[in-house]
Specification:
By secondary structure, the chain is mainly alpha-helical. The protein has 23 helices and no strands. The C terminus is likely disordered.
């Protein structure tokens, strides 16, 4: 094209394939239009196969909003070439396109130089003349059309739509904890609910339920900070359960065990959400990959059971994350039989260790609520410090209802007048490391816990300036990180 060397031309096509997730790139548009024009001008010419492969390589870009008229030009050229080349006759019993799947696309670029140069060594399993055959080029023209418009071509291997491949890549990264930089996590998770709600075909609905099942684990983990995201998933599952599942022919033990890994579960669901994906699944299964029969995965009764299980989990966790917490159970956990604080357990669970994360929200909330009804100076100091410290242990961050209950306590203490100078001469306690782990138990129960070296005295622990500064910082952290609410929607925070 315009005297461009073949290797450079192929490299540009393959570059478009690899970085196809762009829209209205004038340079890419020009490359595709040039390739389509050359194919349309001579659809059965000596180089028609080359322009066809060029459109196969660049077809993924055409699924991402290219410039006006680019898709039409490419599809028109491919249809014309398919019709013209299929009119030819050949003696081949089969052609490479008949076994070509989306996983093979990345190999096309390396195949083209030796294909175009008959003097170059040929190392492919299929003969060169089969690859160059007009009927093979016609098959690849249909493959390109199917990439651009899924389901538009026949007589080609089933393949996942580009949208599905991109969704698998995006969700896998997100669910593995390394979301792509441009991913809006809340929108991506919530959109799976929308995809399920709009699925009219029962087979697609089965796949979409599996995707919602996979993202639900992430949504209820605390990583999603908007209640509306869980609401969208719940609404979609409730709508799904209004469809009649009918009798199940497979029996109670006739359904497969779904993947328990988020990325694997999401990938399976996405594959089953499109006709092409289901066709590819069944092809792979017949090749002996040990996958369960498609009909058992798509069974309406199995879909309903999967939806009910995910719905129950989402509803339970929505209440835990965004409803008012009941902390009455914590009395038995953090109070001794004599009514005093179990200071050793409390201090142990305030250590910033991964296994303490599950206790942090309830412990902090319980401490803040008890603070309001406590009277002893030592106990009140411990409870305030517990509420403050627990927010640092909570991961990924405390739920909004927890923040809203703790924040008034911190604000109240922060507003208490403080003396200009401390009455004690020793330093304020450090709230980290061994000084805290050993110092607070000794402060609260000096008769039970020996004094560690360098421990601050009780006057320093109950110092109004010290406690006021702690409350100030805690309140500022929470206030700074609470997101503005839109239309009274509860949103989450990230506690630094």
């Amino acid at each position: 094209m315009d005297g461009t060397p073949l290797d450079e031309l192929i490299q540009s096509w393959n570059g478009i394939r690899e970085d196809h997730q762009v829209s209205e790139d004038s340079r890419n548009d020009r490359t595709v239009l040039d390739c389509a024009a050359l194919l349309a001008a001579d659809p059965v010419g000596e180089l028609a196969y080359l322009w066809t492969f060029g459109l196969v390589l660049t077809a993924p870009y055409l699924t991402w909003l290219p410039g006006e008229g680019v898709v039409t030009a490419a599809v028109d050229a491919l249809r014309a070439a398919d019709k013209a080349m299929r009119a030819r006759r050949c003696d081949h019993a089969s052609h490479p396109y008949e076994t070509h799947t989306d996983e093979d696309d990345e190999d096309l670029a390396a195949l083209l130089p030796p294909l175009a140069d008959e003097t170059d060594e040929w190392q492919e399993d299929r003969p060169r003349d089969e690859w160059l055959c007009p009927l093979n080029a016609a098959g690849f023209a249909r493959i390109a059309m199917d990439i651009i418009e899924p389901g538009s071509a026949t007589d080609i291997p089933a393949r996942l739509p580009m949208e599905a491949l991109d969704a698998i890549s995006t969700l896998s990264a997100l669910l593995e904890g390394y979301a792509k930089p441009w991913t809006d996590i809340d929108d991506e998770i919530a959109s799976q609910g929308w995809n399920l709600s709009t699925a009219a075909d029962p087979d697609e609905r089965a796949g979409r339920v599996m995707v919602v099942r996979a993202v639900s684990w992430y949504a209820v983990s605390g990583m999603v900070r908007k209640k509306s995201v869980l609401d969208d998933l719940i609404e979609a599952l409730e709508k799904t359960l209004t469809h009649d599942s009918g009798p199940c022919p497979h029996g109670p033990d006739g359904h497969p065990q779904l993947p328990d890994s988020g990325p694997s579960a999401a990938e399976l669901g996405i594959r089953l959400s499109s006709a092409g994906g289901r066709g590819a699944y069944e092809r792979d299964r017949r090749r002996g990959m040990g996958a369960p029969p498609l009909e058992t995965l798509l069974c309406p009764a199995f879909t309903a059971a999967t939806a009910r299980a995910s719905l129950g989990q989402l509803c339970e966790r929505r209440e835990a994350l965004f409803g008012r917490r009941d902390t009455s159970h914590a009395d038995a956990e953090y109070l001794r039989p004599d009514g005093r604080l179990d200071i050793e357990k409390i201090t142990e669970r305030l250590d910033e260790l991964p296994w303490n994360e599950e206790y942090a929200e309830d412990l902090g909330l319980w401490a803040a609520r008890r603070y309001e009804h406590s009277s002893g100076d030592r106990e009140r100091a411990v409870l305030l410090l517990t509420a403050y410290q627990a927010m640092h242990v909570a991961y990924p961050s405390p739920a909004l209802p927890v923040v809203r209950d703790i924040l008034p306590v911190l604000r109240t203490v922060a507003g208490i007048p403080r003396p200009q100078e401390c009455a004690h001469t020793d330093e304020h306690p450090r709230l980290r490391y061994a000084e805290f782990r050993e110092g607070m138990p000794h402060f609260y129960a000096p008769d039970e816990f020996p004094a560690p070296e360098g421990v601050s005295g009780p006057e320093a622990w109950t110092c109004a300036r010290f406690l006021g500064e702690v409350a100030d910082k805690g309140a500022d952290d929470l206030e700074d990180l609470i997101e503005d609410e839109d239309d009274d929607e509860e949103q989450g925070v990230s506690f630094g």
